[in-house]
């Protein structure tokens, strides 16, 4: 693993809420720490209500993790563009995050430990 990246099992229960709906709840979240950046919580895809998410055409590249693919969240009142991402085929160093999504912490999207 890249020396500056650490992936740990996150304790407790994590939820993701958007537009008044619970999109995810899990006790199997992973916490990715990269250098001095804030930790990012990755939620297993199997614990996410994927019916609320639409994959978009947006991609970005990280030299340590690989190519990120983005998702929008569709709520009753609007679509929150590109608020979640996943590394569909991550580099070997971070293979643990395959099958997981992360969400931006925004006023419209809450990622919380309960």
From TrEMBL:
Residues 15-105 form the DUF427 domain. This is DUF427 domain-containing protein.
């Amino acid at each position: 693993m890249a020396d500056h990246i650490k992936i740990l099992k996150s304790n407790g229960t994590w939820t993701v809420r958007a537009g008044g709906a619970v999109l995810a709840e899990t006790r199997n979240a992973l916490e990715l720490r990269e250098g001095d950046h804030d930790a990012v919580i990755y939620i297993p895809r199997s614990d996410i209500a994927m019916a609320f998410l639409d994959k978009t055409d947006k991609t970005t590249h990280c030299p340590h993790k690989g190519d990120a693919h983005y998702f929008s969240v569709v709520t009753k009142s609007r679509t929150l563009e590109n608020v979640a991402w996943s590394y569909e085929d991550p580099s070997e160093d971070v293979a643990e995050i395959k099958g997981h999504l992360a969400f931006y912490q925004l006023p419209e999207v809450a990622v919380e430990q309960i």
